[in-house]
């Protein structure tokens, strides 16, 4: 967990964590490894239930509304804004239940791909996401780089 979190932090990405499996949470593994979590270090735990993933989706929606000038309820424009401007992906780690898979697929509705370390049904052609939608069986030492390559290069604003 610490290695994955460190790689994500080095890329200046926010990590929104939720869910547990057999009493193990990604955020707890980080704390046990001596890693600081919280907003200031971009490692944010939203809770032990997989349904807390909705808070990360809400964060992406607010970005589209605030910075994209999109009106609330315009789901098509929110999708396009997020797909093109928000550099995000879901990393369901460990055993993925049907409920976890359904929650992760919600990310696809925002244009965010899913990269898993276990075997889950893959969706490889493009459409909603820029590249593959769901990629499985990615080893931990390659999961961050695989997730990053699924997204277009982030746009830098300013000079």
TrEMBL record:
This is Uncharacterized protein. Keywords: Iron, Iron-sulfur, Metal-binding. The keyword Iron applies. GO terms for biological process: acetyl-CoA metabolic process. Gene3D superfamilies: 3.40.50.2030. Coiled coil: none annotated. GO terms for molecular function: anaerobic carbon-monoxide dehydrogenase activity; iron-sulfur cluster binding; metal ion binding.
């Amino acid at each position: 967990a610490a290695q994955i979190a460190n790689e994500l932090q080095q890329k200046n990405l926010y990590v929104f964590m939720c869910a547990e499996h057999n009493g193990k949470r990604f955020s707890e593994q980080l704390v046990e490894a001596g890693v600081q979590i919280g907003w200031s270090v971009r490692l944010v735990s939203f809770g032990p239930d997989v349904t807390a993933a909705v808070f990360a989706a809400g964060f992406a929606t607010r970005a589209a509304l605030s910075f994209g000038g999109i009106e609330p309820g315009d789901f098509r424009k929110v999708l396009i804004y997020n797909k093109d401007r928000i550099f995000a992906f879901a990393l369901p780690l460990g055993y993925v239940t049907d409920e976890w898979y359904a929650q992760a697929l919600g990310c696809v509705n925002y244009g965010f791909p899913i990269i898993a370390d276990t075997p889950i049904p893959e969706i490889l052609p493009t459409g909603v996401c820029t590249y593959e939608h769901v990629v499985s069986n990615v080893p931990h030492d390659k999961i961050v780089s695989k997730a990053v390559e699924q997204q277009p290069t982030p746009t830098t604003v300013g000079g």
